[in-house]
């Protein structure tokens, strides 16, 4: 499903900098379809860069990133939005539109892609029910708790029915009770067949989840509890995606 093959990422110099910043250094990683993977590591370790590569927000400086058999470096700019529709993304700060209701925020994900209204109306109730927001459909974000806002964000990411769901510190702004509601929802989504990649600093979540955990530090993978899943060679890994 997902292959990083000797991937390095060096960010260009900014004004006042003298040394290019190497965010990733020859990272190799294979994630099977329907896996639940947790990325851990300190700030600046490279976790967010990995997620940005998977959504084509960034391109590798060297090495290859292959998603579903597609090398992202070979995808034309006009086809990147099509690839991104296979991937849902959840942020720490929700990124909801403050003047739109819950149902409008969720539907917006498909409206901007020109999806027919009939299709949106068919998908919308299923997604709202999945995240447990049936009684909040016409509330504004300002009327919701932090946990409810994050569930709106998750619902929005599911509207494309993605094969991969990326979550970058989704519980960072939540109290423990709401944090676990979000994590339980991610586990439920994973059990329905979606590959989930969660980046988090929360060690309690990591410990209780008991899922494959990858430690990223200094731009490298230091530990991988699922290292036995590593691909035996590049050819077989690509064939498996």
Features of this protein?
241 residues; alpha/beta; 6-stranded mixed beta sheet; 4-stranded antiparallel beta sheet
Outline the structure in words:
The structure is a single chain. Mean pLDDT is 89; it is low at 229-241. A hairpin with a 2-residue loop joins strand 4 (62-67) and strand 5. It is built from eight helices and ten strands. The protein has helices spanning 47-54, 80-84, 102-111, 117-131, 146-158, 176-191, 203-209, 234-240; strands spanning 2-11, 21-31, 36-40, 62-67, 70-71, 87-90, 164-168, 195-199, 212-217, 220-224. By secondary structure, it is an alpha/beta fold.
Quote the distance from N terminus to C terminus: 4 Å
Low-pLDDT residue intervals, each spanning 5 or more residues: 229-241
Assembly type of the chains comes to: single chain
Find the structural class using helix and strand composition.
alpha/beta
Element pattern in H and E: EEEHEEHEHHHEHEHEEH
Estimated radius of gyration: 18 Å
| Order of strands, widest sheet | 6-7-8-3-9-10
Approximately how much helix is present in the residues? Answer: 25-40%
Looking at the structure, what is the overall shape? globular
Strand content: 15-25%
Taking the sheet with the most strands, its summary is: 6 strands, mixed
Average pLDDT rating: 89
- Helix count equals 8
Counted beta strands: 10
The gist of it:
Helix content is 34%, strand content 24%.
Q: What is the topology?
A:
Elements: E1 2-11, E2 21-31, E3 36-40, H1 47-54, E4 62-67, E5 70-71, H2 80-84, E6 87-90, H3 102-111, H4 117-131, H5 146-158, E7 164-168, H6 176-191, E8 195-199, H7 203-209, E9 212-217, E10 220-224, H8 234-240
Parallel strand pairs: 3-8, 3-9, 6-7, 7-8
Antiparallel strand pairs: 1-2, 1-4, 4-5, 9-10
Helix pairs in contact: 3-4, 3-5, 4-5, 5-6
């Amino acid at each position: 499903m997902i292959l990083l093959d000797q991937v390095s990422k060096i960010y260009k110099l900014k004004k006042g900098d003298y040394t290019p910043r190497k965010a990733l250094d020859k990272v190799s990683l294979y994630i099977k379809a329907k896996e639940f993977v947790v990325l851990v590591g300190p700030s600046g370790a490279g976790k967010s860069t990995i997620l940005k590569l998977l959504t084509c927000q960034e391109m590798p400086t060297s090495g290859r990133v292959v998603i579903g058999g597609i090398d992202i470096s070979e995808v034309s700019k006009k086809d990147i939005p099509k690839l991104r529709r296979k991937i849902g993304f959840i942020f720490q700060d929700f990124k909801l539109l403050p003047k739109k209701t819950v149902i409008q925020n969720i539907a917006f994900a498909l409206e901007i892609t020109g999806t027919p209204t009939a299709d949106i109306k068919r998908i919308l109730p299923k997604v709202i029910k999945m995240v447990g927001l049936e009684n909040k459909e016409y509330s504004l974000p300002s009327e919701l708790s932090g946990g409810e806002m994050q569930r709106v964000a998750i619902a929005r990411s599911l509207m494309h029915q993605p094969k991969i769901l990326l979550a970058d510190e989704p519980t960072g702004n939540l109290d423990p009770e709401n944090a676990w509601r979000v994590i339980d929802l991610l586990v439920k989504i994973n059990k329905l067949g979606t590959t989930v990649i969660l980046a988090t600093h929360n060690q309690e979540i990591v410990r209780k989840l008991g899922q494959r955990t990858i430690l990223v530090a200094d731009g490298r993978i230091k530990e991988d509890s699922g290292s036995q899943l590593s691909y035996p060679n590049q050819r077989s890994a690509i064939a498996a995606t």
